[in-house]
Design brief:
The chain has 207 residues and is mostly helical. The protein has ten helices and no strands.
């Protein structure tokens, strides 16, 4: 048993060292080539690679955009077997960083948002739950919560639109049109879906 644990620790350390070494050369090598190499490692060592990338996203503020780009590529693989604890860590970190008001640049926020959209292909409920936690009427949500919802709507359709429906209707009922107008700016297709939901709700109530 001790030998098995030792072998696992050696493997983890090897993955950690290789990924860290690749990330250290992002400034003087082709980022796409590095991203492909890390994605290749993740095919057999997914959890180990994700742990390293999450650690570096917290430590390396200068290269966050590039690291998110690499993480998004890793998550485009089959991630169905990823530990739920790691899924929650990805969601929590990306959500926090895309809502930062002082340190994070718009590029980091976009990268974090895109990562959540990619992760939602396998873990939709986890991503939506996190976004739901930041949709608390009558407070207007942060911009990138809405951006992510708009992108989820484009990627996954009506499910996201129905989710937004209740929140938007609440604001309209209170006379607050700011959320509706913000969503209109971000994604007209999403509002078309919301309008369809409103119409179906109206027809249902009149029956």
């Amino acid at each position: 048993m001790n030998n098995l644990v030792s072998e696992q620790e050696v493997t983890e350390r090897g993955v950690y060292n290789e990924v860290v070494s690749l990330l250290a050369h992002m400034d003087d090598q082709d980022k796409d080539r590095i991203a492909l190499r890390i994605a290749s490692i993740a095919r057999t060592k997914l959890a180990s690679v994700v742990r390293v990338l999450l650690e570096k996203l917290q430590q390396d503020k200068q290269n966050r955009v590039a690291i998110y780009y690499i993480l998004e590529g890793v998550l485009q693989q089959d991630t169905g077997g990823l530990e739920i604890r790691l899924v929650k860590n990805i969601v929590s970190l990306a959500s926090d960083q895309m809502r930062e008001t002082q340190e994070a640049t718009n590029e980091v926020k976009v990268a974090a948002s895109n990562t959540l959209v990619t992760l939602a292909s396998c873990y939709f409920d986890h991503v939506m739950y996190e976004l739901h936690c930041h949709l608390k009427p009558p407070k207007l949500p942060e911009e990138f919560i809405l951006v992510t919802l708009a992108n989820l709507s484009s990627a996954y359709g009506m499910v996201t639109s129905i989710f937004c429906f209740k929140v938007i209707v609440f604001h309209l009922r209170t006379g607050d049109y700011s959320l509706y107008l913000k969503m209109l700016q971000l994604n007209r297709a999403l509002l078309e879906c919301v309008r369809a939901c409103v119409e179906r709700q109206r027809i249902h109530c009149s029956c």
